[in-house]
Amino acid sequence: MFRYEDLIGRPYRKNAAGPEAYSCYGLVREVSRRMGNTLPDYDQVCLAAAIDSHKNDFASVSRPRIGDLVVIKTRPRERHIGIMVDGSRFIQCTRLSGTEVVGIGYPFYSNRIEGYYRYRGK
């Protein structure tokens, strides 16, 4: 079992990887590390593009499970990422809310989720 509760409430900071503040991908990497996995150090701003261009590293999945990445379209040309902490919730870090756990059915996100991805590792 991994712990993430101590991360809740940490503020967002661009390109931050903790422990005081996180960016969205910095948080995803920390939670993944706590799960026993090491995600690549992709450019955070281009993470969705990295998933697109490194398809061999990621598998698209229809039923997310703990540790799967959640890619969310936030604006026409922007994407955001979180990581599943159970079968229906993910942890994320945003400029407005900082680090929080959100359900995939939450109205703001439910229609914006582009997909779920499982890291295959190398």
Q: Would you spell out the secondary-structure blueprint of this structure?
A:
Layout: H1 24-34, H2 47-53, E1 58-61, E2 69-75, E3 78-84, E4 89-94, E5 98-103, H3 107-110, E6 113-119
Antiparallel strand pairs: 1-6, 2-3, 2-6, 3-4, 4-5
Features:
single chain, 122 residues, alpha+beta, endopeptidase fold (from Nostoc punctiforme), six-stranded antiparallel beta sheet, 3 helices, 6 strands
CATH fold description:
endopeptidase fold (from Nostoc punctiforme)
Identify the CATH class: Alpha Beta
Strand order of the largest sheet: 1-6-2-3-4-5
Overall tally of structural domains: 1
Characterise this structure.
This protein is of the alpha+beta class and 122 residues long. It has one domain: endopeptidase fold (from Nostoc punctiforme) (Alpha-Beta Complex). The chain is 18% helix and 30% strand. It has three helices and six strands; from the N terminus they run ααβββββαβ. The chain has a six-stranded antiparallel beta sheet with strand order 1-6-2-3-4-5. β4 and β5 form a beta hairpin. The longest helix has 11 residues. The protein is globular, with a radius of gyration of 13 Å. The protein starts with 23 loop residues before the first helix and ends with a strand.
